[in-house]
Amino acid sequence: MGSLNNGHLDSDPEDDKEVDLELRRAVRELLEGMGEDSGREGLRRTPLRVSKSLLQATRGYRQKVKDIVHGALFPEVGLRKEIGQAGGAGGLVVVRDLDLFSYCESCLLPFRVKCHIGYIPSGHRVLGLSKLSRVADVFAKRLQHPQRLADEIASALHDSINPAGVAVTLECSHIYIPNVESIFVDSENRGWLEVVVSAGSGVFEDRRSDAWIDFVNLRKSRGPTVNGQRTEDDICEYWCPLVATDPSSIEMLYPELTALVTSIIRSLGENPVRKELAGTPARFLKWLMNFQNASLQIDLGNLDICPLDPSRPKRGENGHTEHLDSELNLPFCALCEHHLLPFHGVVHIGYIHAQGSNPPGRSLLQSIVHFYGFKLQLQEKLTRQIAETVSPLLGGNIMVVVEASHCCMISRGIEKIGSSTATVAVLGRFSSDASLRAKFFQSIRE
Amino acid sequence: MGSLNNGHLDSDPEDDKEVDLELRRAVRELLEGMGEDSGREGLRRTPLRVSKSLLQATRGYRQKVKDIVHGALFPEVGLRKEIGQAGGAGGLVVVRDLDLFSYCESCLLPFRVKCHIGYIPSGHRVLGLSKLSRVADVFAKRLQHPQRLADEIASALHDSINPAGVAVTLECSHIYIPNVESIFVDSENRGWLEVVVSAGSGVFEDRRSDAWIDFVNLRKSRGPTVNGQRTEDDICEYWCPLVATDPSSIEMLYPELTALVTSIIRSLGENPVRKELAGTPARFLKWLMNFQNASLQIDLGNLDICPLDPSRPKRGENGHTEHLDSELNLPFCALCEHHLLPFHGVVHIGYIHAQGSNPPGRSLLQSIVHFYGFKLQLQEKLTRQIAETVSPLLGGNIMVVVEASHCCMISRGIEKIGSSTATVAVLGRFSSDASLRAKFFQSIRE
Hints:
2 copies of one chain form a homodimer. By secondary structure, chain A is an alpha+beta fold. Chain A has 2 domains: 3-291, GTP Cyclohydrolase I, domain 2 (2-Layer Sandwich); 322-445, GTP Cyclohydrolase I, domain 2, CATH 3.30.1130. Chain A has helices at 13-33, 41-44, 46-57, 65-69, 129-140, 146-161, 210-219, 247-253, 255-267, 280-288, 362-373, 379-390, 407-410, 429-432, 434-445; strands spanning 73-75, 84-85, 93-104, 110-120, 125-127, 143-144, 165-175, 192-200, 322-336, 342-354, 376-377, 398-406, 420-427. Chain A has a 5-stranded mixed β-sheet. A 5-stranded mixed β-sheet of chain A has the order 11-9-10-12-13, with helices on both faces. Chain A is globular, with a radius of gyration of 26 Å. At the A-B interface, strand 2, strand 3, helix 5, helix 7 and helix 12 of A face strand 2, strand 3, helix 5, helix 7 and helix 12 of B. Strand 3 (93-104) of chain A pairs antiparallel with strand 13 (420-427) of chain B, so a sheet runs across the interface.
């Protein structure tokens, strides 16, 4: 199977430098193909950042499993067979809840992996526990499909530690890919699609075996990590939402850009003609073009609304002439202009609703959120732009809170998986009235 | 304050090599001081691993904040002051739930940090979001106290991005330090002590300011991350459980080993005579010596128990002459012999209880767990040793499951924070009867 020595690229520093320069050039041209000015201050260093993070994200092509396992098999005698199984002779070991990130071979976007690995040692040797995670990461840091990832982890471990068997279960979450036509249906989901896959070798090959049942029981013994609604080995042939799209129309529309993405895949150490990668450049472009400058139009001219007058004096708080109103949890997905990776989350808009006024409905506010969301963006700028746009429609006293997860924060570099970012814009009375802000924060939490 | 250019060591590769060799020598001598054979296979590469991970864990001494912030301030115009605050002109930004690890200056053990950072941009510039985490990590990767860590993060960010203000809240969890005399009181706690600290600069200096209240509200808006039982700014002068111990007796008992730990601190780039570090070598040794070879004695000779006969034939399942019994959640804390870092968790023991027999009580089983726990260990070996020892006391048909968190997996290197490891040993009927094992797994989950 050759996975032990799998390393497509040599690590010659000169080669690395050339690959980096090629990637930067390709990213710069992609930005221009999207209608962006790649020389503007916010984008100037984007090619450098994207190249660096792409190389990090696919470092598995340049790593060898044997270098990781080497020297990490430790003596542990175990028990004599007639007494029982333990330690280095038959004692099941399960490492649970390893957080990894991998990259979808169908669309190049990152996917989250909650990884569980079990093995049964034989030959009076056990593997250093962290090596299970490191070996899994070698295969995660490539362009992958969940099932292949599970298979490769299981067989690489089997080959290198020679155990009675290896069991792998992966809970994979693919980023949901919104497009201009679709509004997120499920904002609770926060943009992830999930499948569960498994692989087993040796005594774990048969899912009905006692060994596999022990693995499942032990994996879950700290609580049900696998959601009840999902089944193991969900069919995930079409798990990437973009697989269903026909690449040929995109390829005809953007032949040069398709060639650029193909060259990026080659630079990373992959073979772009591998059959699973055939439509990948087109699918990546389809996704990317969602965020093309000015691909979405918004017309606020013909709105049937009656904007409030921001200069109107405030009435008594119990006069019921006005009250705090809000639209919460408007979903969005934007593209981080520093890393070309999505950030997604929700927008909350608070405003002072005066009696008799007719503020715009949720769907218009959602359209405004989408208009500024489907772009190369910064969360700070997005927040400000939404605030500037909705303010005249809502009477000038408004507050916008944006809460988002950034793929660039969680899938590469710092890998802060649970982190999220919140930003605020305040206009009119919300700028000066802290108790009004507190009231709005309270309504978000409820 | 100088935090921008703080870097105690030059990065001359020759120096680095020398530091590495010094650290390895010191660790080898420490192992021998604990009564270990540093040449045995399991320990041979421990000095190398510990040196590497200590250098990683304290890399903050060799990093400069200005190198991180450089080039990551991006233009964002914000709003005119008279309209409101947003983006690069007054728009509050909060990055929440950054998982970091730091190292206690009182005892050298790692502590977990859930970090929340807010700042209010000014001057039409915003900082790349990941830089907040990277700057925090520079100070986390040093020997720290929670309050100083918060202060250093806040002032380094304030100095380098020149905002209206910076706010930092840290939820810190110090590993609970068991000793031979103490049994874990709270197994739910799984060995962590918690404090919450804060720091603020500029508009966040006053905790009663509107800015601070907004920060607190925004930090929590995704759900209460700060536990209700803790208050902000818990007094944490004595948060390290070892601070209360008198270092002088340890220093008298182990003068050479104290000198070794002092030399390690110096090698890492710290000043061992800084007043907060005065008793640190002794405290570290006090903790380490808990795991000294054979520091605990166990005597199974005089037990008032009636061991079962493993050769006794099995009765009918409904005959009620025997049933599955168990002792669950026996806490333990061991020292990983590969990294000299603790792993801690719980042991579950299942056995066949025959009518009329008198199995040993929980306290004896707990003593056995402690006996094998307070050592340089591997989880696999610990599981097997406990199984071998309890088997004759419990009739020979037994199963041991150990569930543990490994500091070496979560605080350094792979940093798999949510991960845990489960190991199993089975003897007698548990080896061959999968449904019996499943029944025991079920009882663990309940």
